[in-house]
């Protein structure tokens, strides 16, 4: 791709977003990075112009797209990491997460697509998570939001391919970015899930502390951006791509147990079969 092209990277004030912005700038792109408060970015990337963006606010999304103008590359990176037992996730927290991680990114994508289509070229990269491919207990909301983002990207690929637009999802595994300190968590007072939840968090934090640097993810994003025909999915960290091979070869239940064990969760027995009236165990459900 031409070095004179323009890129918009959301969540570019720190972590993966800042690393992506730095990598694109080094390649000669004109880069817009976003932050909810551009004036408070403590370590701005040289050469990056910061725009205000609150993905939970549709007006802010529209204003950001208008301020950036025509862009050739969109990297949807901004998002929130959330955890908690599904039973105890507040409704408003769940809705906020999906507006931030999914709906805001999708709306921004909608706003830049007409220009890309008119110019018959562009790249859109969704920064997801390997947890979308390897779901983890107590991360259900985050897993679902990243799976939704990947679903939008995968379906979009065919729609825009005739116009020279490439779409890819990058799924990082454990990345050492300090995200553990920024993760939102929800646990009710006296929760029956407390022991397992805290074990999962401790393992998650330890895995992230040993994770690969954000620059590794940025290099993968750059590959997706500059590939002539980007693949649907790129994975980096946490043993990728080997774990994806195992995911295809091993039974799903085995992969789920491996994922749980990696995150400090003990194996559990399956659910007790439901009983029919009269106390007999239920068989396979009938149609209906």
TrEMBL record:
Which Gene3D superfamilies does the entry link to?
NAD(P)-binding Rossmann-like Domain
Q: Where is the composition biased (Gly residues)?
A: 279-288
Tell me its family: Belongs to the short-chain dehydrogenases/reductases (SDR) family.
Q: Which organism is it from?
A: Streptomyces sanyensis
One Pfam annotation reads adh_short
Q: Where is the composition biased (Low complexity)?
A: 266-278
User: How is this protein named in the record?
Assistant: SDR family oxidoreductase
Q: What is the lineage of its organism?
A: Bacteria, Bacillati, Actinomycetota, Actinomycetes, Kitasatosporales
Q: Where are the transmembrane segments?
A: none
């Amino acid at each position: 791709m031409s070095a004179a092209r323009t890129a918009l990277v959301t969540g570019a004030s720190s972590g993966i977003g800042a690393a992506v912005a730095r990598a694109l700038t080094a390649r000669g792109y004109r880069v817009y990075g976003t932050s909810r408060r551009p004036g408070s970015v403590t370590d701005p990337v040289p050469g990056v112009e910061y725009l205000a963006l609150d993905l939970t606010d549709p007006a802010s999304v529209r204003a950001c797209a208008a301020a950036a103008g025509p862009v050739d590359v969109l990297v949807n990176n901004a998002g929130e990491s959330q955890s908690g037992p599904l039973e105890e996730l507040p409704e408003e927290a769940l809705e906020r997460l999906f507006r931030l991680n999914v709906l805001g990114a999708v709306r921004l994508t909608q706003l830049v697509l007409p220009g890309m289509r008119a110019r018959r070229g562009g790249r859109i990269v969704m920064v997801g998570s390997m947890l979308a491919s390897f779901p983890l207990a107590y991360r259900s909301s985050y897993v679902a939001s990243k799976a939704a983002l990947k679903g939008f990207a995968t379906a979009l690929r065919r729609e825009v391919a005739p116009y020279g637009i490439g779409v890819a999802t990058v799924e990082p595994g454990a990345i050492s970015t300090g995200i553990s300190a920024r993760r939102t968590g929800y646990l009710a007072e006296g929760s029956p899930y407390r022991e397992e939840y805290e074990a999962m968090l401790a393992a998650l934090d330890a895995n992230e502390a040993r994770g690969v640097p954000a620059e590794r993810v940025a290099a993968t994003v750059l590959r997706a951006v500059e590939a002539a025909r980007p693949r649907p999915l790129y994975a980096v960290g946490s043993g990728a791509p080997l774990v994806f091979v195992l995911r295809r070869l091993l039974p799903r239940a085995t992969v789920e147990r491996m994922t749980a064990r990696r995150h400090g969760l003990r194996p559990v027995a399956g659910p007790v079969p439901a009983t029919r009236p009269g106390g007999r165990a239920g068989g396979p459900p009938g149609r209906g």
